């Protein structure tokens, strides 16, 4: 077993989130150096991890099963070739360790011979001591279950560290390096996801990767020799270190134009339509959670809408469309849009994105259909294992809290998440006059009930009028604009 573990691997072994370990390090409850913890320090913090399988591990497994469902199991096992390669790599590591043990024994043997040949009686005690020590070194004793777990984890997953950002993630099952990074919420550079464009080309600095599919993009001999591979067409065989750029602002995401198709539509209720678009396999939409794109339906009806899913599924794009009688886009979407129909999309745009490096708690306020970009942000925050997430969904009426089961399922499944529903009792697109007072009172009640809210990052999305009122509310409490992000949904 490695003497030191990365936080990602340590969190997986113990069955807690990476953020929890980071918090313990911040509070001085666990010692770490350069983002690595020793097994000893980990066990000092989590002595129960000595047990074969903790209740916590089982609980986390249940949470993941509920939260992500069948897909987790479908991708739990890697390709047989990759599995064999990983086991071979482990065999090599074991053989190296065995050779080191043999050498250690031989060294002690030579020391014994040397001491034996020395006539001085005073060395007798030393010989006895050495004899016992050698027997102890040879005797394996009780094997730490954590070591066994780590070996299994090494077979099932490989850990990849990205330089220079120092993001790290685990590669599981059939995932390519690119897919695994996206699942972990890390926005690497890429284009087609299919081996054609070369935008995901990156340099392997350490570790072993393996090509999992052929690609048309040609990597020159010199680049191959320098360790360059396509992240969309390779997986990790062993733990690896890779040099690759990571997008950390909206400016790093290119403008894209794609012809997508309607995969499905569904009426969530009389006023809200769920639109599911699918892009071609080789033209996926690269975006940051919380961003908008422009959609053109029927060749001429356009609207800019927030994407309601996280960037980890860049091919399947979800939108929540509100019925607005007389609005040509809305009328077309509700009454005429057909499955398989072409939809032109352009973007992404917007700066409503997660402050993912901030240690502050994250407070989300969704007004009516503002839930769409908030859902994207929360799913992304969950991929990053961000702690301390609070969602307040404020509906004009009950009907406008149109997907409560999703938020309630997050609340049930995650310790670090709280969810509250509130009914305004009037149309949030028109909160002027007395209604503004009512909305202010509602926000004040929420704030009084949660003393930590004003120290957190605030995200507000919904109709412009309600967002403006909420933005003013937080400005009056002196929150800087850098901590209050807004998205006005049409
Ligand atoms: S994303 Fe286009 S080649 Fe990998």
Give a nutshell description of this structure.
The chain has 490 residues and is α/β, with parallel strands linked by helices.
Description:
The chain is α/β, with parallel strands linked by helices. It folds into 5 domains: 4-59, no CATH class; 80-152; 156-243, Ubiquitin-like (UB roll); 251-349, Beta Barrel (Elongation Factor Tu (Ef-tu), domain 3), CATH 2.40.30; 362-488, 3-Layer(aba) Sandwich (Rossmann fold), CATH 3.40.50. Helices cover 37% and strands 23% of the residues. It has 15 helices and 20 strands. It has helices spanning 7-14, 18-26, 39-45, 55-68, 70-74, 80-116, 124-138, 145-156, 177-183, 221-226, 328-335, 371-383, 404-413, 434-449, 464-476; strands at residues 4-6, 36-38, 157-163, 168-172, 201-206, 209-211, 228-230, 234-236, 240-243, 256-267, 272-278, 292-297, 301-306, 316-322, 342-349, 362-367, 389-395, 417-423, 457-462, 484-488. It has a 6-stranded antiparallel β-sheet, covered by helices on one side. The chain has a 5-stranded mixed β-sheet with strand order 4-3-9-5-7. A 5-stranded parallel β-sheet has the order 18-17-16-19-20, with helices on both faces. Helix 12 links the parallel strand 16 and strand 17. It is globular, with a radius of gyration of 27 Å. The two termini are 54 Å apart. The mean pLDDT is 85. Bound molecules: FE2/S2 (inorganic) cluster (FES). Residues 190-193, 195-200, 217, 230, 232 line the site of FE2/S2 (inorganic) cluster. FE2/S2 (inorganic) cluster binds next to loops.
């Amino acid at each position: 077993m490695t003497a030191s573990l990365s936080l990602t691997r340590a969190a997986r072994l113990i069955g807690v989130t990476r953020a929890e370990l980071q918090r313990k390090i911040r509070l001085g409850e666990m010692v770490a150096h350069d983002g690595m913890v020793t097994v000893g320090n980990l066990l000092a913090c989590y002595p129960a991890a000595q047990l074969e399988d903790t209740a916590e591990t089982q609980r986390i497994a249940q949470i993941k099963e509920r939260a992500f469902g069948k897909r987790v199991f479908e991708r739990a096992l890697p390709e047989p070739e990759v599995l064999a390669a990983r086991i071979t790599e482990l065999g090599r590591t074991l053989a190296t360790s065995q050779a080191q043990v043999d050498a250690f024994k031989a060294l002690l043997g030579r020391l014994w011979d040397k001491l034996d040949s020395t006539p001085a009686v005073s060395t007798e005690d030393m010989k006895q001591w050495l004899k016992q020590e050698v027997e102890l070194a040879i005797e394996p004793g009780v094997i730490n279950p954590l070591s066994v777990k780590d070996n299994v984890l090494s077979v099932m997953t490989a850990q990849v560290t990205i330089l220079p950002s120092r993001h790290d993630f685990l590669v599981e099952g059939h995932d390519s390096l690119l897919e695994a990074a996206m699942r972990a919420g890390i926005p690497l550079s890429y284009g087609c996801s299919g081996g054609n464009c070369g935008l995901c080309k990156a340099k392997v600095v350490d570790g072993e990767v393996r090509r999992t599919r052929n690609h048309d993009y040609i990597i020159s001999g010199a680049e191959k020799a320098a360790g360059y591979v396509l992240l969309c067409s390779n997986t990790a065989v062993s733990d690896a270190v890779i040099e690759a750029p990571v997008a950390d602002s909206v400016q790093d995401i290119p403008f894209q134009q794609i012809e997508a198709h309607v995969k499905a539509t569904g009426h969530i209720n009389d006023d809200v339509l769920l639109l599911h678009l699918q892009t071609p396999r080789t033209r996926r939409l690269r975006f940051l959670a919380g961003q908008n794109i422009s959609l053109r339906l029927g060749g001429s009806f356009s609207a800019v809408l927030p994407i309601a899913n996280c960037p980890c599924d860049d091919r399947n794009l979800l939108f929540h469309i509100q019925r607005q009688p007389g609005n040509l886009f809305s009328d077309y979407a509700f009454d005429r849009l057909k499955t398989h129909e072409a939809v032109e999309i352009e973007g992404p745009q917007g700066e409503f994105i997660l402050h993912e490096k901030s240690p502050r708690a994250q407070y989300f306020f969704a007004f009516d259909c503002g839930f769409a970009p908030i859902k994207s942000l929360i799913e992304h925050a969950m991929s990053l294992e961000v702690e301390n997430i609070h969602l307040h969904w404020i509906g004009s009426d009950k009907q406008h809290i149109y997907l409560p089961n999703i938020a309630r399922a997050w609340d049930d499944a995650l310790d670090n998440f709280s969810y509250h529903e509130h009914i305004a009792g009037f149309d949030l697109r028109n909160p002027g006059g007395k209604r503004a007072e009512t909305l202010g009172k509602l926000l004040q009640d929420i704030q009084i009930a949660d003393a930590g809210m004003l120290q957190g990052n605030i995200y507000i999305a919904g109709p412009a009028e309600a967002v403006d009122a909420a933005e003013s509310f937080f400005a009056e409490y002196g929150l800087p604009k850098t901590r209050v992000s807004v998205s006005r949904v049409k």
